[in-house]
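note to self: dont lose this again. the chain is below, predicted strucutre after it. 709 aa total, dont forget to put it in the shared folder this time
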Amino acid sequence: MKRNESKLKQGRILNAVIVAFAALILSVLPISMMVNASGNSAGGVPVLIRTANLVSPTGSVNPHGETEYEVYDSGQRELEIEAEDVNAANGTVLSFFVDGNSVGQASILDERAKLKLKTELGQVVPTVNGGSTVQVRNGATMILNGVFGGGNATPSPSGSPSPSPNVSPTASPSPTTSPSPTVSPSPTGSPSPNSGDLFAALTGATVNGVLPNGFAQYELRSGRTELEIRVRQVNLSPGTSLAVSVGNVLVGQLILENGGEGRLRLRSDNGQTVPSVTSGTSIVIRNGGTTILSGTFVGFSATPSPSPNATPTPNQGRYFEAQLTGGQVVPPVSTAARGEVKIFLNQAETQATITGEFYNLPSAQTSARIEVLVGATSVVFNFPIVGGTNGNFPNGTIAVTPIQVAQLRTGLWSAVIASTNNSNGEIRGQLSTHSDSSDFDGDGSNDFAVFRPNNNTWYTLNSAGVGAQVVGGATDKLVSGDYDGDGRTDAAVFQNVNGAGVWTVKRSSDDGFTMTQFGLASDTAAHGDFDGDGRADLAVYRSSNGSWYIQKSSNSSFVGVQFGTSEDKPIAADFDGDGKTDIAVFRPSNGGWYYLRSSDGGFGGVQFGQVGDLPIAGDFDGDGKADLSVFRPSNGFWYIQRSSNGTYDFRQFGLGTDIPVAGNYDGDNKTDITVFRPSNGTWYIWRSVDGAFDYRRFGQNGDIPIVSR
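---
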């Protein structure tokens, strides 16, 4: 064990050296260049992106896949085509075609095949137009096809657009009381999984600062048996081989990919050996002699006898989100509609409260459901029909078992909303844990939290009571967020260590510390979830050259983007509602907001504010998008432009010396107008749920509030 710990420590030191070296390289890049230090970029800024979802011509769920075509401002091109869940033996060669012309071949490994072409490597990359076709063939049989869409050019971010006129908001509407939520009808039962099907939740200790998880599923079907194991957030190098043992017998190896994901699938009808699995059979996944994940198989009974491995691992978040789009439906649906679904577990994790909303459906909403893909897809909850093309579902509460909670945590629950035009599903999204910068208990609401510089202590007030922990120093910058992937906010600071920027994170999953050098001490920390994997990414804004540098948690790649000027304030928020943080800046001299959308690479700007305003960017209307918003200390006013309908709101709430700390304090999924008054350590909240005022004394003069964004 000591030897393994030593290796892990050496790995951390090596990682720190690599990160420091990468940050040094980024610091000298030309300011107009976008770089992916992992080697995935063709050089320059992508000015054209086209994608295609690959579906089976038979209409079946499997196989499936996706492809992406990129053109960079340097003239280089890239094409990537990937096929998944292909029922063919390892080594089977698939052929790839664009517009009927062969572009290459790739062999199947674990039911997957990927072709990647780059002109910078001297490879031939075809020109892809909107409407170009892509096919994947196994011999003469076409198994997948799709059509490329997208392709809007991305303007160079170095130039600021002419700002829109600063519209003066009309009179502030009086807040109206939200109707009391009604309980949804009990969901319609769906077929239970086969009685021979078994499931194991995989849990383990933190690996290099990240909490891994996964699942194993055993299926018994007429004529075949199948065992599938999937893992995620295993923070080891891509390509690492993990040994899988079932009942203390080695059954295979799985290879880690980007994001710490890996999969092993064994099927008897493919000639593979599938072990015999019964309720109580153990499964262990190891890296050498170190156990990474383990679990115990249990049945799908509605009231299973929980085993230690089926019970949710302690210290994990209880709030989950899904961003719904047509592209996630199988087969994909071309639609401008989108939606958001959220699930809250109670503290005992025996009940789930579910809420959701949808926008821009092309036809009336006809159904909505939460489904779980374990064996055959089954429905665990049905929303009521609200109709219309825009709407909000009333809250519904259902009982959940430990098995269901484990499935939810491992990403097996999805939300689907159907319409008249698409009765099987207009939009869909996968539920995953989510935590902002001030949700230390992981319940989905913001905590009252402060940092006290005179004793370097973080104090929190939430459902767990009052907490205190020592992290950082008086001059450090606060950068709290969910870095370890357990769904709870971690206390974290950005420190000046001999001119270098060092991120020190106290992990909520195991109370250990992770230290990473990334950026310069003079940079502004601007962390967010830029890759949408549910974990906070390290990110800094360098005002000296107007550049952003980001280390993605999903694959540890480095990205540098020149976007901003020396006076700009970085704003890391999700403005397009795709579940990923967008790069954005607020320009104090003209009140301009400038942003790069992660959803399509589009660039925009609008003037909303004036000199002296403080940018907020909260989701005040609860539509899943950050709203343009500012607090004006000169008059204590809040100015908000709602993203849902473009209307304006302004309210006077606070003093010029107050600190704006907008966040979701009342649990209704909308940002509340809130200020912290340093002179008396009091939080003043204008609740969005009922329009009432509230206050909470938590803190003292000199404390720094932990802001939700």
